Amino acid sequence: MKTPYLKEFPNKDGFFGKFGGAFVPEVIAKQMKEINEAYNLIAQNAEFINELRKIRKDFQGRPTPLYFAKNLTKKYNGAGIYLKREDLNHTGAHKLNHCMGEALLAKFMGKKKLIAETGAGQHGVALATAAAYFGMECEIHMGEVDIKKEHPNVTRMRILGAKVVPVSFGAKTLKEAVDSAFEAYLSDPINSFYAIGSVVGPHPFPKIVRDFQHIVGIEAKEQFITMTGEMPDMVVACVGGGSNAMGIFSAFIEDSYVDLVGIEPLGRSNINNVKLGEHAASLSYGSEGQMHGFNSIMLKDNKGEPASVHSVASGLDYPSVGPEHAYLHSIGRTKVDVINDKEAIEAFFTLSKMEGIIPAIESSHALAYALKVAPDLKGKKILVNLSGRGDKDIDFVVENYGYGD
Ligand SMILES: *Cc1c(COP(=O)(O)O)cnc(C)c1O
After folding, report:
1. What is the pTM of this model?
2. Which end of the chain, N or C, is less packed with Cβ atoms under 10 Å?
């Protein structure tokens, strides 16, 4: 009998093919091993599974709906467009799915404090929420550029009781926030738990976060079949680190006739003139390398260091990508494509005005791709993971792009 994909990958050392692993100092390696052991214990424990189920239903409001975007489908006159509504998950994005799981794991391990970085602020808000729920301390590191851009989320974190640490070196965005949070974690790895915000970082995080996000794909698949009587022809998700994409893809990997498409941010570049530093499309334009404790595909500068990146979506602004995405792409199971800032903002307004749903700019990348290909796919069905809502983005969008009229 064939081993199911999710059991086979990653292997016991955290590798998806040559990608993944745990390239970290000795002290951290020891912590990662403990986290992995604790996770393996509770992942098979009925009490833990039941508590997580209860949290998802009563606290998060899961299952989130699947929505047939009838107005968009009519307008683009091609493929049917369906949205998995993670924007309706408590706190407004998919991130609470892994934060509640990570916090539950940290609590089980006897940790007192949750530490993390955040880009758009969604992971910070989700983790601050989880910390409040479980009565734990919480410290969130955030680049000063993002603090300005995503101010409502900074306020939410502080109201929820978290300490927000501004990061003022380098480009002052997501990558530096990771460096800063990691340093804070290193100062007290015994009492604190670094809750990584995506399917990145050293083993076992890419696996743990994927497993906690898997619920998105399980729900979406069942809902899709119930609603349409069929499977989707294509599943589309935006890829920053890759957690919302892995969440929804993971339920379809063995259904080889379903196209899985990850959308990376092309930023200020356009497809005929791609400039390093102006985008964050790691899988599309990167090469093999290590950062933040794992081996994957990354964007490098001419010294081989992580390149500076840009996307209008703070949550996609990362020079590497989860190792599982690197693997699935390398074996041809997933495809990647790119959407730039301008196309994402257009899709942001289109969904808002045509369906009454204001999407996160991150999610707008996935949507923009679906709208681009839909006219040529008549008779097919596209499932888009709408990873989050756009409330956090409205001030920034209006200031820079007006009301989209
Ligand atoms: C953080 C975030 C993302 C990007 O993170 P992934 O790990 O790639 O999913 C996408 N959408 C929203 C709404 C986010 O908050």
Report:
1. 0.96
2. N
